[in-house]
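ok so I'm stuck.
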Amino acid sequence: MALPRPTSLSPTKVTSFKDCALAFRLSNIDRIPEPSSIPAVKGTVVHRALQLLFAEEEPERRTLDAALARLERAVPEVLSAAENADLAFDDETLAAFVADAETLVRNELELEDPRQVRVIGTELRLSVELGNLRLTGIIDRLDLDDDGRLVVTDYKTGRAPSRGYEQTRLAGVHFYALLCEELLGVRPARVQLLHLREPVVISTVPTDQSLEAWRRQTAAVWSAVERACDEEDFRPRPGPACSWCPYHIYCPAVGGDLNRLPPVAVPA
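replied:
not stuck anymore, here's the structure
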């Protein structure tokens, strides 16, 4: 019996399928929840603090003190969420967590002056139909530059890529540029990653070629997903990511067993 198809593709899903089709299936079709991790939750905290800063404060009031106040509010909000209940923090671990998150927030204000940013929206959920495929994404921040042109901004709290991998990391924001062009009828003038760890900005200009490449890539990935669902054939792809993959008990490439999976609910 064929597996149910996902309802949409996002940059994360495209990358997941290309990296390991089985992990894609377990996450997006079987919907096996991934355990929380401190680095991922820290990223959520920092994103939330910056969202609050840009969404709630008038430009002239976006100071470091205001940013740190938003961080203080974001920490208990995120850590108290049900999906993070399995994380255990003692006083020392929590203090280190907050201190590192504060460093990341401070670094954001080193990369740009938030008082000069012309924000259109934060955490924007966009969705567009391309043929039989629905593309979705969440843009961290959509801005206007000095000339009134759109800029897509994405925060990253992990390590910045080496120079040879910069374009690979920019793939997601090119996807967001495609969503803007399809939904709003306007192509962003620039897409940028704000890597808060170093800190460093990586930016590029979307072109006809880059957006068409994303159209072709998403169409090809979607065709492969449909075929894999029809044939129930999502194969593992062993590699470096296996060391932190949460699905070992299901993965035959590392001695797991797919028979452990609960039945997939098939829509009526």
